[in-house]
């Protein structure tokens, strides 16, 4: 690989084996398994009655894929048996009914502005089942207020006609594709072959006309990725012109997903230094290709909705990546789906479909864990969100939102940042704490300074112990069900 212009010592100095992306804060391992469906009900009533007109992001999880990608750590089931999908849909409809019956009993209406079908691969649903699901939602809230409707789409399972159907009949106006990488060798080594030509075929003029946002997910750290292959992938992306490119670092967690080991069959994965080099190439290439960096892992075209949101302060980073439309109030249905009510509550459904179904059969919310955030959690959540979305902590913004002098509040954290200031990653002024261009590549480390539960002073072993404890508690719950 080529030498990175980023100081390798700096990369080594700040490297951590366990890092957090802060899609949620506090991170999931700190949520309580005592938080159950009854707690979620109370949270819904309290939060929704106090925030009646706040826009809601309604997320629907479809956890099925026909083929396993070896890098995947999503909650999914691999199957070609559509009967399994059908059976799941019965329960998904049950959960939706349970939720909306409960909201109706409490005279609560949802002001849904965003609908997002994620997975797994939502495009596994056949046309009729997709339409039935959308029609059900249309009957439950005022669909005329929905501004964004995204369907995550598997390019290998859709064609132009299907994408037009999803738009014209079901109303989707955003597509998110798991692009991951265009190099054929990399694709082969992760068991996901989908050449750029395939995207060319399906992203026709007609499709581009009806979808206002076309997003590509781009995964860094895959086997066989080099600065050369990544450069070519970037060129193909620029040619295909998605409005949005969302990057993520591949999480190698064989203790969660054992099949990931197959990616090492022909050699090691890019190490943390090489990943930084890859990110640097991507930054240079995409910037030269007309993309603007609109978030830690996000590049968008100048006239895209995401760039506008970034500029007017309504972009937000959360469980579904970088999104437009301001702070995300998530209400989510489906196995493993995570709800996020403002900065007050988190809750998550059971991952495994058997437990998910069991609770619904008993007429209970299938809630697996959750958390009520303290004031301190909320302040720190806002800090990590601001850093991930805008690369800065604006002191006035905190004064306005929390009525506190954030400089005083974070005095210890500011002291801790001293070293990062010396290393040229962060600058502090009277207005706020801001990452430098170099610092943007260390935004997870910088966000970590504001994490009370897993601060940078925690060792690898201490972090691992937290993860193991959470896993053991989860396994115990599973046994009890
Ligand atoms: S299609 Fe997406 S969810 Fe399914 S296995 Fe591949 S990466 Fe995972």
Describe the fold and architecture.
This protein is of the alpha/beta class and 481 residues long. It has 2 domains: 1-29 and 374-481, Arc Repressor Mutant, subunit A (Orthogonal Bundle); 30-333, pyruvate-formate lyase- activating enzyme. 41% of the residues lie in helices and 18% in strands. The strands form 5 sheets. A 9-stranded mixed β-sheet has the order 9-10-8-7-6-5-4-1-13, sandwiched between helices.
Layout of helices and strands:
Blueprint: H1 8-14, H2 37-50, E1 56-62, E2 64-65, E3 77-78, H3 82-105, E4 112-119, H4 127-138, E5 148-153, H5 160-168, E6 174-180, H6 184-189, H7 196-202, H8 205-210, E7 213-220, H9 227-240, E8 244-249, H10 272-288, E9 292-293, E10 298-300, H11 305-312, E11 316-318, E12 321-323, E13 330-333, E14 338-341, E15 345-349, H12 353-361, E16 367-372, H13 375-390, E17 392-394, H14 395-402, H15 406-409, H16 411-416, H17 418-422, E18 426-428, E19 432-435, H18 443-448, H19 460-480
Parallel strand pairs: 1-4, 1-13, 2-3, 4-5, 5-6, 6-7, 7-8
Antiparallel strand pairs: 8-10, 9-10, 11-12, 14-15, 15-16, 17-19, 18-19
Iron/sulfur cluster is lined by residues 65, 68-69, 72, 74, 76, 119-121, 154, 178.
Number of helices: 19
Classified by CATH, the class of the largest domain is Alpha Beta
How many strands?
A: 19
Within the CATH hierarchy, at the fold level, what is the topology of the largest domain? pyruvate-formate lyase- activating enzyme
Give the strand order, joined by hyphens, for the main sheet: 9-10-8-7-6-5-4-1-13
Structural class: alpha/beta
**Backbone shape:** globular
Bin the strand percentage.
Answer: 15-25%
- Calculate the mean pLDDT score and round it: 92
Radius of gyration: 22 Å
Q: How many independent structural domains?
A: 2
Distance between the termini: 50 Å
Give a short account of the largest sheet: 9 strands, mixed
The stretches of 5 or more residues where confidence is low (pLDDT under 50) are: none
Per CATH, the architecture of the largest domain is: Alpha-Beta Horseshoe
CATH superfamily of the largest domain: pyruvate-formate lyase- activating enzyme
Ligand roster: iron/sulfur cluster
Q: Name the quaternary structure.
A: single chain
């Amino acid at each position: 690989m080529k030498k990175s212009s980023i100081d390798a010592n700096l990369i080594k100095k700040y490297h951590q084996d366990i890092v957090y992306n802060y899609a949620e804060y506090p991170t999931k391992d700190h949520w309580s398994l005592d938080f159950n469906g009854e707690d979620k009900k109370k949270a819904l009533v309290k939060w929704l009655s106090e925030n009646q007109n706040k826009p809601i992001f309604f997320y629907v999880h479809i956890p099925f894929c026909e083929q396993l990608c070896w890098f995947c750590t999503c909650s999914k089931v691999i199957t070609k048996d559509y009967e399994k999908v059908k059976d799941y849909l019965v329960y998904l409809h049950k959960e939706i009914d349970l939720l909306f019956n409960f909201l109706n009993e409490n005279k609560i209406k949802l002001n849904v502005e965003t609908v997002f079908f994620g997975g797994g691969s939502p495009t596994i649903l056949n046309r009729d089942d997709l339409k039935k699901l959308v029609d059900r939602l249309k009957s439950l809230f005022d669909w005329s207020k929905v501004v964004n409707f995204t369907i995550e789409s598997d390019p290998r399972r859709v064609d132009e006609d299907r994408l037009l159907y999803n738009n014209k009949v079901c109303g989707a106006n955003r597509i998110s594709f798991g692009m991951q990488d265009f190099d054929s060798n990399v694709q082969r080594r992760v068991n996901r072959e989908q050449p750029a030509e395939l995207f060319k075929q399906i992203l026709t003029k007609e499709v581009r006309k009806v979808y206002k946002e076309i997003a590509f997910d781009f995964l860094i750290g895959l086997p066989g990725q080099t600065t050369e292959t990544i450069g070519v992938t970037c060129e193909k992306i620029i040619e295909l012109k998605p409005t949005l490119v969302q990057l993520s670092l591949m999480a190698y967690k064989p203790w969660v997903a054992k099949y990931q080991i197959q990616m090492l069959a022909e050699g090691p994965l890019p190490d943390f230094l090489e990943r930084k080099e890859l990110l640097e190439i991507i930054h240079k290439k995409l910037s030269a290709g007309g993309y603007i960096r609109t978030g830690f892992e996000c590049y968008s075209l100048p006239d895209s909705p995401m760039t506008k949101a970034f500029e007017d302060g309504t972009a937000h980073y959360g469980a579904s990546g970088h999104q437009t439309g301001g702070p995300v109030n998530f209400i989510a249905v489906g196995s493993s789906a995570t709800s996020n009510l403002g900065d007050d509550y988190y809750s998550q459904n059971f991952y495994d479909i058997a437990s998910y179904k069991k609770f619904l059969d008993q007429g209970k919310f299938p809630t697996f864990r959750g958390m009520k955030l303290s004031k301190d959690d909320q302040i720190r959540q806002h800090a990590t969100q601001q850093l991930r979305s805008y690369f800065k902590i604006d002191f006035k913004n905190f004064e306005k939102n929390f009525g506190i002098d954030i400089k005083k509040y974070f005095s210890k954290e500011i002291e801790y940042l001293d070293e990062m200031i010396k290393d040229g990653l962060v600058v502090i002024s009277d207005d706020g704490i801001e990452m430098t261009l170099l610092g943007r590549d260390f935004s997870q480390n910088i966000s970590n300074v504001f994490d009370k539960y897993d601060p940078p002073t925690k060792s690898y072993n201490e972090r691992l112990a937290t993860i193991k404890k959470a896993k053991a508690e989860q396994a115990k719950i599973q046994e009890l069900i």
